[in-house]
Amino acid sequence: MLSATNNDLLCNVSPGRPMHNAFKQVWLPVMRTDKLEAGGAPVKFMILSEDYVAFRAEDGRVGVFAEKCPHRGCSLALAQNKDCALTCIFHGWKFDVSGQCVETPNVQNPDFPAKVPLKYYPSREAGDALWVYFGEGETPQFPDLIFNRLKPEQILSRAAICHYNWLTGLEAILDPSHVGLLHQNWLNEAPNQGYSADINLMGKSTPPALDIEPTGYGFRYSAIRTTPADTQYIRVTEHISPNGCFIANSKSTRKLFIISVPIDNEHSIQWYFWHNPLGPLTEEDRLYALGATDADHSNFYQTPKQKPSWGQDREAMKNGTSFTGFTDIMFEDFIAGESQGAIIDRTKEFPVPADKAIMWARRFMLDKLKRQEEGQADIFRHTNDFKYGALQSITAETDSNADWKQVTDQRTAARTKNLGIV
Amino acid sequence: MLSDADNKRLCDVSPGSPMSEAFKHYWLPVMKDSRLEAGGAPVKFTALCEDYVAFRAEDGRVAVFAEKCPHRGCSLALAQNEDCALTCLFHGWKFDVSGQCVATPNMPDPEFPAKVPLKYYPSREAGGVLWVYLGDGEPARFPEFVFNRAEPEQYVSRAAIVNYNWLTGLDAILDPSHVGSLHQNWIENAPGDSVSADIKFQAKDTAPTLEIEPTDWGFRYAAMREAGEGKRYLRVTEHVQPSGCFIAQSIETRKLFIMSMPIDNTHSIQWYIWYNPKGPLVENDLRYALGNTDRDDNNFYQTPKDKPLWGQDREAMKNGTSFTGFTDIMFEDFIVGESQGAIPDRSQEHLCAADSAIARARRILLQKLKRYQEGDQEAFSHGNKFEYGALQSLGAIIDTDTDWRAIAKLQMSERAEKLNKLS
Question: What angle do CA B151, B154, B158 make, to 5 degrees?
Fold first, then answer.
């Protein structure tokens, strides 16, 4: 449960709001890089309620600018993309791919272009996605998470545009206890999908206890379940602050990172970065990543939105073939999220212990926002005392008294050694 | 550049706002008068965020009322148009074409109708347009521009409804330096029989020098470009406050007046009134006025709006056949205007010397708003010292040392003299 004030503090990403400033301290994935064609149309996008334009020059380099031409605000989405520069069609002001203004045909003074302040943003292509740093000042370390270091055949990045605030997306991935219910049909089928059998322990075990540890990049937590055999089933999620998670996937060749990126206060991109750290993603794993979603990787959540009640199949619910009436687990998450309302009224919740990670994430951010208001700079930046490439979620069945942090650290050490991550 | 407060002061035309008050001191073009059929359906329209209804009585007279029946607010757009009066469907209250209430069937008191206050507005048909005075009190002098005195075969008036605030439309017609960039294909390709050859100087010299001369009706400004051999290409635009301009067209048989008319804060009508002061508009000039726009003169800007990025043709941009990817110069203006956002954030602009007419118009308006607020009732008046019918823009090649002000002044007084002889 949150006060209306705190809910607004976390959800409101409009310019000038604290959470807007928070997101401007981290790198954000904004679109699939294949949307940018060399010398092709610039692509307009919105992040944090502000408009931007990205383009790829003929030589392959990418530039990200504020959408509006600094002269009189004509959209640079309409601009010419030639000579490794955007030329505004209105008065011909020209900006090269590094963001420097190089021509202003309606001004006689040759020194004028050098003085035109275009808003330019550092960007990087990694993991099939265009990542952008929207903040000012020194650019922070790029999050070279494992999938951001892999070869194209090892990754599949997909974006879903959802009609809900970014926080709903974060809460979905910090919510271990919905899996056994919302996704119960999937859970029954999961072993046939190449998951290890331990995934079934989620349905069979006790409600999870949660244990959380803060880190330099956010926090990690383990959902700990006691199995019928009295062992411990642990699922460790790595939370990259403020909005991403490695999801505990009990399959070594198909890992998943999800990140919720704010478009505006009522829309967000849910990014699914599927990856295989060990080799190419297999055809089977690629098909799994597609599920029953829409085929467009730039927005794989389209069809349910157009239907009343998201096309819920009440007949299938009645005859027991589907608990939810929906056919895909990613869709189930998005639909449940949208059904909560574009901005959830969190004054009316009734949280239970299984929601502890959600509560913790909110408290964690509210605390940072408070320190930010007190004048501490860059409070949402990650520290430098860890390796992004080493982060990964794990699942394991352990002795009932094993320490999940130790288990995780041992696994991480072994994995980073194997992958040669330094 | 404008502060947020000044930008809002100029853009906000909602009831009670300073700019709404300002516009209510001018005659405003609200629709083509051909929309009004004698005895036909009343036509609802929105101007300055308020709703009105216009109708034509069986005898041809036109009247403009507030949209809502004064009784209980039923829309008079639904009313009967008979006996040179509108009769509200709801309770039968009846208003004649002069705005007088003449029947209130649900009131037995025969004195009652005379007391019903209907909001009635003076209107005038001219130039193919219905002009309305939406203010209180004595209407301002009617702008008897050349086209407002001309015969129907001399003009064609066309309206484009755009998704931007009225000020974006005014900015566009006070902006000489966009022509060489945004309209460069038009300059290259316009057929010789529809434009004069001197327009090419707009592409050759893309940084015109601007000079501005304040006038009773607003200002006139000259955009001057190098034309070689000690000559300059002069284009003089007459800006008629609050939101109109005579555009410099260097062709004798086809002149153009553009006016930006506020519908609400994020929509406006861009009026294109094409006319030939000397005789009927010729076929070639009529075709030119249509361009590649939509054929509906009540809204000739329709198709691009339905398409992503206004249907920009990136292929044509790439292969060099079109700089903008659009096929009509009027559309180019509307599209860049819409791309600036419905209400542009003018605190983020970086104006240059070529934008000085834009900056001046805003400054004058802000000064007038201030004067009016301080109690100057005449702040928005154009006065009586000039003939609207003598206003005309000008395009010419002149010697570098010729005084453009003198030329413009002389031409205007010559036209005024001719008008006086006629009347």
Answer: 110
Rounded-to-integer distance, Cα B139 and Cα B156, Å: 26
d(CA B333, CA B349): 18
Helix, strand or coil, per DSSP, at residue A311: helix
CB contact under 8 A, A72 and B325: no
CB atoms within 10 A of CB B8: 16
Q: To 10 degrees, the CA torsion angle through B161, B167, B171, B172?
A: 0
Which among A73, A89, A112 has CB closest to B182?
A: A89
The answer to whether B332 contacts A39, with C-beta atoms less than 8 Å apart, is no
The Cβ of residue A374 has, within 10 Å, a number of other Cβ atoms equal to 8
Q: For residues B394 and B371, what is the distance between their CA atoms, to the nearest angstrom?
A: 32
Residues of chain B in contact with residue A106, where contact means CB-CB under 8 angstroms, are: 177-178, 180-181, 206-208, 352, 354
Q: A258-312 pLDDT, tens per residue?
A: 999 999 999 999 999 999 999 999 999 999 999 999 999 999 999 999 999 999 9
The first and second tokens of residue B305, run together, are: 């709006």
A298 touches chain B (CB under 8 A): no
Shortest distance, CA A243 to any CA of chain B (angstroms): 30
pTM above 0.90, yes or no: yes
Write the burial class of residue A243 (CB in 10 Å: 0-12 exposed, 13-18 middle, 19+ buried).
buried
Q: How far apart are CA B75 and CA B46, in angstroms?
A: 13
Integer CA distances (angstroms), A384 to A216, A381, A387, in order: 7, 9, 8
Instruction: Report the chain A residue with the minimal C-alpha distance to residue B207.
Output: A106
DSSP class of A197 = G
Q: Which of residues 317-346 of B touch A (CB under 8 A)?
A: 317-318, 323-325, 332, 335-336, 339-341, 344-346
Q: What is the ipTM of this complex?
A: 0.91
Closest CA of chain B from A157, distance in Å: 25
A108 contacts in chain B (CB < 8 Å): 207, 353
**CB-based contact B318 A106, cutoff 8 Å:** no
Q: In Å, what is the CA distance from A223 to each residue of A208, A209, A214, A253, A396?
A: 5, 6, 15, 22, 11
The phi-psi region of residue B406 (left if phi > 0; otherwise alpha if psi is between -120 and 50; otherwise beta) is alpha
For residue A68, give the DSSP letter. Answer: B
d(CA B117, CA A244): 64
Within 8 A of A40 by CB-CB distance, chain B residues are 314
Tell if the CB–CB gap between B207 and A108 is shorter than 8 Å: yes
Q: pLDDT tens across A324-378, in order?
A: 999 999 999 999 999 999 999 999 999 888 788 899 999 999 999 999 999 999 9
Q: How far is CA B1 from the centre of its chain?
A: 24
How far is the C-alpha of A31 from the C-alpha of A108, rounded, in Å? 38
**Residue of chain B minimizing CA distance to A73:** B340
Write A105-114 long-range contacts (CB < 8 A, 24+): A105/B177, A105/B180, A105/B181, A105/B206, A105/B207, A106/B177, A106/B178, A106/B180, A106/B181, A106/B206, A106/B207, A106/B208, A106/B352, A106/B354, A107/B207, A107/B352, A107/B353, A107/B354, A108/B207, A108/B353, A112/B352
| Type and span of the H or E element at A335 | helix A329-339
| B163 part of contact set with chain A, CB < 8 Å | no
- 8 Å CB contact of B181 and A112: no
d(CA A125, CA A341): 33
pLDDT tens-place string over residues A237-256:
999 999 999 998 778 889 99
| Euclidean distance between the first and the last CA atom of chain B, given in angstroms as a whole number | 45
* B341/A89 Cβ within 8 A: no
8 A C-beta contact, residue A289 and residue A272: yes
For A415, list phi and psi in degrees, rounded to 5: -65, -45
Instruction: Tell me whether residues B314 and A68 touch, CB distance under 8 A.
Output: no
Q: Residue A93 burial by CB count (10 A; 0-12/13-18/19+): exposed, middle or buried?
A: buried
